[in-house]
């Protein structure tokens, strides 16, 4: 008979034998049935040989019988294709026979992940500065396999579509760093969260301080307890109708299942006042527990009525120590070792992973640089770390390198510059301009330059700063140095002419001049008293005296306008005449004080 063409031959993925395309389906059914029965039979207890599988009671597969007879071992010990084994107890999905899918490793469980990383970290510790990683346990096959698997998982986490900050988001309060003031041991909020007695909250803090993460921790705890339902919405993309639909579902959940609904609104300040009013009756009656996150001052961006029904939790910018803890947790997850001593270098470290991918190390100084440059923003720090590692890995692959050491320069290149917390239309805008004004008033030129730099480097409009300096020149310097106003106006015009970044030195010069100038609020205080006098006056305001009125026509002159007015330049002596209304005679808006303030 003519030989079968190779196109008509198909390999069984279970027993790895070749069959005709027309026979493969019936064979695969029998083969899988036999393997399933064999998996359910107890293994042999004999110590001399590996355990054998018992024959299937169903009709045996001819090909399998022939294979077993040929090998002289009865039925072969097969390994079922991992797709068919998913979810069965006691199976790993590994294959003993060589072939396709036979080398896939078992996935580690989450519960063992922390211990596994800790053990690998211990295996990877160097015995002395500049010494090699050595020891029988490191040269053993299990240790090399473990490190190789860790290296593969590191690359998967680095090149996944999700940012590293999202993948490293904590799920428990024990992993939540940097907010001990409000969530430390024995604090009121922590006790409420642990007992699932969650009040309505407004989480206020700068970007990357953990507002959304705290909400996710609450969501995880609520899912575990099962007594509440967690819904997440973003004010940037949610309409009022969607909010009403969620509230309607919350009402049904409460009526039918006695289950509460926790509603998390990210960027709640993006909702206008009328949209925020939608929550009022439902938060009041307890239909939903509202958790809002905002980077803006709730006093300005959230309705007063809604604020009275929620507790405002102020989350602070993360400290350098908290950032180092967060980064260390990420490095442990990625399997990246830290070179803690200055004598460490990549040349003295042997590659023991057995992986084709380069080994990754990071200097302790580089880690500290991330913690300082991210300015308390955990999201920026983790994503900056990911960018630096990715860039060095790409360079290592091009250069055929087996090791990658991330240094301080690589981190600075990835982050470029410090993240300056500044919002031209938000809370930080008013905080910084207030600090600049008070520093100049206190004659502290160093602080004045610092706050000026914070504003300009954060992207503030230089003309806005220049206008504030003009105001300061008259309000705080005043008549103590009349040239201050001239300097401030000149600085404003210069900024208008040349713009940023050239005009920054003009503003710096003006700020230093105003800080060093003598101060006087005599005019400022006097004018404030005039305004107060006008506001507190009862009845109609007194008319302008006739001698002070202008008389351009004969009728006005006949009515007494300008009658009795003494033209001062016509007299060599000082002229005495009244310039205030009769009711205001003797008033003095200027009061001298010892320090002229």
Automatic annotation (TrEMBL):
InterPro entries hit by this protein: AAA+_ATPase (IPR003593), AAA_assoc_2 (IPR032423), AAA_ATPase_RarA/MGS1/WRNIP1 (IPR051314), ATPase_AAA_core (IPR003959), DNA_pol3_clamp-load_cplx_C (IPR008921), MgsA_C (IPR021886), P-loop_NTPase (IPR027417), Rad18_UBZ4 (IPR006642)
Location of the region described as Disordered in the Swiss-Prot/TrEMBL record: 36-73, 124-143
Residues in the signal sequence: none
Alphabetical list of SUPFAM superfamilies matching this protein: P-loop containing nucleoside triphosphate hydrolases, post-AAA+ oligomerization domain-like
Subcellular location, record wording: Cytoplasm; Nucleus
UniProt KW keywords: Acetylation, ATP-binding, Cytoplasm, DNA damage, DNA repair, DNA replication, Hydrolase, Immunity, Innate immunity, Isopeptide bond, Metal-binding, Nucleotide-binding, Nucleus, Phosphoprotein, Ubl conjugation, Zinc, Zinc-finger
Gene3D superfamilies in the cross-refs: 1.10.8.60, 1.20.272.10, Classic Zinc Finger, DNA polymerase III clamp loader subunits, C-terminal domain, P-loop containing nucleotide triphosphate hydrolases
PROSITE patterns: ZF_UBZ4 (PS51908)
GO biological process, one term: DNA synthesis involved in DNA repair
GO molecular function, one term: ATP binding
Domain UBZ4-type: 9-36
Catalysed reaction, written as an equation: ATP + H2O = ADP + phosphate + H(+)
One GO cellular component, as annotated: cytoplasm
Complex formation: Forms homooligomers, possibly octamers. Directly interacts with POLD1, POLD2 and POLD4. Interacts with the N-terminal domain of WRN. Interacts (via UBZ4-type zinc finger) with monoubiquitin and polyubiquitin. Interacts with TRIM14 and PPP6C; these interactions positively regulate the RIGI signaling pathway.
Family note: Belongs to the AAA ATPase family. RarA/MGS1/WRNIP1 subfamily.
Summary of the function given for this chain in its UniProt record: Functions as a modulator of initiation or reinitiation events during DNA polymerase delta-mediated DNA synthesis. In the presence of ATP, stimulation of DNA polymerase delta-mediated DNA synthesis is decreased. Also plays a role in the innate immune defense against viruses. Stabilizes the RIGI dsRNA interaction and promotes RIGI 'Lys-63'-linked polyubiquitination. In turn, RIGI transmits the signal through mitochondrial MAVS.
PANTHER family in the record: ATPASE WRNIP1, WERNER HELICASE-INTERACTING PROTEIN 1 FAMILY MEMBER
Protein name, as recorded: ATPase WRNIP1
Taxonomic source organism: Polypterus senegalus (Senegal bichir)
């Amino acid at each position: 008979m003519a030989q079968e063409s190779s196109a008509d031959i198909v390999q069984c993925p279970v027993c790895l034998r070749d069959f005709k395309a027309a026979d493969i389906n019936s064979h695969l059914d029998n083969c899988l049935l036999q393997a399933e029965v064999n998996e359910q039979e107890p293994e042999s207890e004999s110590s001399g040989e590996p355990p054998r599988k018992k024959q299937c009671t169903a009709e045996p597969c001819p090909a399998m019988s022939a294979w077993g007879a040929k090998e002289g071992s009865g039925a072969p010990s097969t390994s079922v294709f991992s797709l068919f084994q998913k979810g069965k107890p006691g199976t790993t999905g590994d294959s003993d026979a060589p072939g396709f899918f036979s080398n896939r490793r078992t996935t580690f469980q989450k519960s063992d992940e922390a211990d596994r990383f800790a053990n690998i970290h211990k295996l990877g510790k160097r015995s002395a500065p500049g010494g090699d990683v050595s020891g029988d346990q490191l040269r053993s096959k299990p240790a090399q396999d473990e490190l190789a698997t860790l290296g593969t998982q590191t690359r998967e986490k680095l090149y996944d579509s999700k940012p590293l900050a999202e993948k490293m988001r904590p799920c428990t309060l024990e992993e939540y760093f940097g907010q001990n003031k409000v969530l430390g041991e024995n604090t009121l909020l922590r006790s409420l969260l642990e007992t699932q007695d969650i009040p309505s909250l407004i989480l206020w803090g700068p970007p990357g301080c953990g507002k959304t993460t705290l909400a996710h921790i609450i969501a995880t705890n609520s899912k575990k307890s099962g007594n509440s339902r967690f819904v997440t919405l973003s004010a940037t993309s949610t309409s009022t109708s969607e909010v009403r639909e969620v509230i309607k579902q919350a009402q049904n959940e409460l009526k039918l299942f006695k289950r509460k609904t926790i509603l998390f609104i990210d960027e709640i300040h993006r909702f206008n006042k009328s949209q925020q009013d939608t929550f009022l009756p439902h938060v009041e009656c307890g239909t939903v527990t509202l958790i809002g996150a905002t980077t803006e001052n709730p006093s300005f961006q959230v309705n007063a009525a809604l604020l009275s029904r929620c507790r405002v939790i102020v989350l602070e910018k993360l400290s350098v120590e908290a950032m180092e803890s967060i980064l260390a947790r990420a490095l442990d997850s990625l399997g990246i070792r830290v070179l803690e001593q200055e004598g460490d270098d990549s040349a003295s470290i042997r590659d023991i992973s057995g992986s084709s991918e380069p080994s990754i190390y990071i200097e302790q100084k580089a880690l500290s640089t991330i913690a300082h440059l991210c300015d308390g923003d955990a999201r920026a720090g983790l994503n900056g770390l990911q960018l630096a590692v990715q860039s060095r890995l790409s360079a290592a692959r091009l250069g055929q390198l087996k090791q990658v050491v991330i240094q301080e320069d690589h981190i600075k290149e990835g982050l470029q510059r410090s993240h300056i917390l500044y919002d031209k239309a938000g809370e930080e805008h008013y905080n910084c301009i207030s600090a600049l004004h008070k520093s100049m008033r206190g004659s502290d030129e160093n602080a004045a330059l610092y706050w000026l730099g914070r504003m300009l480097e954060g992207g503030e409009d230089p003309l806005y700063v220049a206008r504030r300096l003009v105001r300061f020149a008259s309000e705080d310097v005043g008549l103590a140095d009349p040239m201050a106003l001239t300097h401030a106006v000149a600085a404003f015009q210069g900024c208008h002419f040349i713009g940023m970044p050239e005009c920054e030195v003009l503003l710096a010069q003006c700020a230093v001049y105003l800080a060093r100038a003598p101060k006087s609020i005599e005019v400022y205080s006097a004018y404030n008293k005039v305004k107060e006098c006008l506001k507190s006056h009862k009845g109609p305001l007194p008319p302008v005296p006739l001698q002070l009125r202008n008389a351009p026509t004969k009728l006005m002159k006949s009515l007494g306008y300008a009658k009795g007015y003494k033209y001062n330049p016509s007299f060599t002596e000082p002229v005495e005449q009244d310039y205030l209304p009769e009711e205001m005679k003797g008033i003095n808006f200027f009061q001298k004080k010892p320090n002229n303030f």
